[in-house]
Amino acid sequence: xxxxxxxxxxxxxxxxxxxxxxxxxxxxxxxxxxxxxxxxxxxxxxxxxxxxxxxxxxxxxxxxxxxxxxxxxxxxxxxxxxxxxxxxxxxxxxxxxxxxxxxxxxxxxxxxxxxxxxxxxxxxxxxxxxxxxx
Length: 134
Prior knowledge:
By secondary structure, the chain is an alpha+beta fold. It has 2 helices and 8 strands, in the order αββββαββββ. It has a single domain (3-130), classed as Hotdog Thioesterase (Thiol Ester Dehydrase, Chain A). A hairpin with a 2-residue loop joins strand 1 (20-26) and strand 2. Pfam families: 4HBT.
């Protein structure tokens, strides 16, 4: 799938997901942007942990779909996230996903999230997806 196809699929199948866009496609994964809004912030003026985990999960899902096509029932079976720095509340978040393994049944990936314009990651996630049988 191409970037516009992934975005159309997400808009159609997951209308509750908004503010995300695919910014880069690579053979081993892709990058997504989340446009930060007030609803993403927590007390203390930073992006909330659940927002960052949702971004990590969504970019992994998009990376898997980019390789296997429209498989709505590919699901997360495992995930963990390390929060390393406070994200900038006034900058979009960029999430880079690299697929480490894409098999018939499981996909394993790693995600680095950073605030736009900053080199240091604010979070790192590892996720595993289950791919349903054809």
